[in-house]
Structure formats: structure tokens, C-alpha cells
């Protein structure tokens, strides 16, 4: 199965409805806000939003950050640029696969991965790319659903996860091993909804 093409097609189809579903769920906005608080963005910093979708993060960003947004779906990214315009924000937006980022190493101070890791087809390659484009001392802001690192998915959860991956999102990815793959260090992690299925987290790249 060509998951990249499938994601592009299905998110192009979901785009008109996305904000009416995801944008209306209070716990998702609270989790997103909490992850951004942990990231402590500062004016002048370069921020990459990976799998930016319709840009629900944009209105929550600190003033004065320099934003680049990438996504694989033209329809989602089109809504993201429209949201930026509506909020008088100037952003750069590009159609791009999260696992093959077209940026030089050390280009960003912070990368946002909000509802992204559970959806991209290759989370390991994505995390390696994110780590590559982060500057030394940079950090990632994560908000997503994960299987706890010390848990083993039950057969029921595995079956539900397989089904959910096709139309929505993976339920059984684990953050810890992905951070190891990117060489990033977990700095903070908190439950952020649905009994701990969602977490808000921050991880840092070493300064040297
Ligand atoms: C659940 S949405 C999250 C959107 C946004 N980050 C948010 O928090 O609302 C997942 C997004 O991932 C994008 N996506 C899926 N696979 C991708 C890939 N390989 N590279 C970049 N974006 C991808 C989809 O097009 C969709 O916009």
C-alpha cells in the first residue's frame, strides 16, 4: 500500500471537515496549548510545523516567531495558508513529505509535531529528519496519542489500531524509541486527554 498517496488523498478529502471535528474538541486544544507552553517559543525563533494540517497551531503561537509549515495534502495546506492570512501572519508553506524534509541541517529552533507522529507513514524516518533540521539545543513539541513505552498493545488494541491507521491514526506508536532514533532527549511529558492516550511532551537536541 502506498501510504503517502493514501494520506494525501484522504486528508484532501477530510480538509473541509477537519476544523469542524478536530478544531471543536476542547481537550485537543488544551493538549496543543500545553505542548506549546512546554516548548517556550520566543520571538525571532525559527519554527517548523510538520504535518501542519489546516494550521490550528498558528493562532496559538507566540508573537514574532518565524514559521514554516509543511504538509503532504494540498487541501490541508491551502487552509493553513488561508488561516495565516486571516491572522495576519506571514508564513512559508510547502508541500513536503515529513520523512524527506527539504531543509538544510540545523535550520530550526523548534519543530512542532502535533497529531503528526501517529499519522505519518514512517515515524522513524520523520524523527531522524526532524532531528537533522533542528539546530543544536533545539527542541520538539509533541502532542499526540501513544502507547506508553513500557506497555505491550493487547490483541484488541492492535486490531483497533490496524483499523484506525487506515482511516484515522495509529494508536500503538511509542514515543521513547522514536526519540532514541532521532537522538533526542525527553525533557517533559504529561498526559493530555482520554485517560493518558494523548500526551503533551517536549524533547531536546543536545547543544553540541
Ligand atoms: C491529524 S492531521 C494533524 C494536522 C495538524 N498538525 C493539527 O494538529 O491539527 C495529520 C496531518 O498529517 C499530514 N500528513 C500525513 N502524512 C504526511 C507526510 N508523510 N508528510 C507530511 N504531512 C503528512 C496530513 O495531510 C494531515 O494534514
Strand content: 15-25%
Anisotropy-based shape: globular
**What order do the strands of the largest sheet run in, or round the barrel if closed?**
3-2-1-4-5-7-6
Domain tally: 1
Q: Runs with pLDDT <50, length 5+?
A: none
Hetero groups in this structure are: S-adenosylmethionine
Decide which structural class fits the backbone.
Answer: alpha/beta
CATH topology: Rossmann fold
CATH class: Alpha Beta
Can you give the mean pLDDT? 94
Q: What is the helix fraction of residues, given as a range?
A: 25-40%
> Count of DSSP E strands?
7
Q: What is the CATH homology-level superfamily?
A: Vaccinia Virus protein VP39
End-to-end distance? 39 Å
CATH architecture label name: 3-Layer(aba) Sandwich
Largest sheet: 7 strands, mixed
Give the count of helical stretches.
Answer: 6
Radius of gyration: 16 Å
* N-to-C order of helices and strands: HHEEHEEHEHHEE
Structural commentary:
There is one protein chain. The protein starts with a helix and ends with a strand. Strands 3-2-1-4-5-7-6 form a seven-stranded mixed β-sheet, sandwiched between helices. Helix 1 (3-21) packs parallel to helix 3 (74-86). The protein is an alpha/beta fold. The protein is globular and about 45 Å long. The chain has helices spanning 3-21, 26-39, 74-86, 123-133, 155-167, 175-182; strands at residues 46-50, 66-71, 91-95, 108-114, 134-145, 185-191, 198-204. 38% of the residues lie in helices and 24% in strands. It has a single domain, classed as Vaccinia Virus protein VP39 (Rossmann fold, 3-Layer(aba) Sandwich). The protein binds S-adenosylmethionine. S-adenosylmethionine is lined by residues 4, 7, 11, 22, 51-53, 56, 71-73, 76, 97-99, 114-116, 119-121.
Amino acid at each position: 500500500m502506498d501510504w503517502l498517496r493514501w494520506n494525501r488523498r484522504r486528508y484532501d478529502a477530510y480538509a473541509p471537515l477537519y476544523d469542524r471535528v478536530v478544531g471543536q474538541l476542547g481537550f485537543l486544544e488544551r493538549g496543543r496549548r500545553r505542548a506549546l507552553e512546554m516548548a517556550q517559543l520566543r520571538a525571532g525563533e525559527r519554527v517548523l510545523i510538520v504535518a501542519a494540517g489546516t494550521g490550528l497551531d498558528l493562532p496559538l503561537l507566540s508573537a514574532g516567531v518565524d514559521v514554516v509549515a509543511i504538509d503532504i495534502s494540498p487541501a490541508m495546506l491551502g487552509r493553513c495558508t488561508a488561516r495565516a492570512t486571516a491572522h495576519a501572519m506571514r508564513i512559508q508553506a510547502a508541500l513536503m513529505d515529513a520523512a524527506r524534509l527539504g531543509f538544510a541541517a540545523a535550520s530550526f529552533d523548534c519543530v512542532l509535531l502535533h497529531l503528526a507522529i501517529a499519522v505519518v507513514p514512517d515515524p522513524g524516518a520523520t524523527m531522524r529528519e526532524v532531528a537533522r533540521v533542528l539546530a543544536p539545543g533545539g527542541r520538539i513539541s509533541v502532542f499526540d496519542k501513544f502507547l506508553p513505552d513500557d506497555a505491550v498493545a493487547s490483541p484488541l488494541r492492535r486490531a483497533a489500531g490496524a483499523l484506525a491507521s487506515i482511516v484515522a491514526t495509529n494508536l500503538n506508536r511509542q514515543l521513547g524509541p522514536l526519540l532514541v532514533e532521532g537522538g533526542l532527549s525527553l525533557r517533559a511529558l504529561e498526559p493530555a486527554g482520554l485517560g493518558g492516550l494523548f500526551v503533551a511532551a517536549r524533547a531536546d537536541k543536545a547543544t553540541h
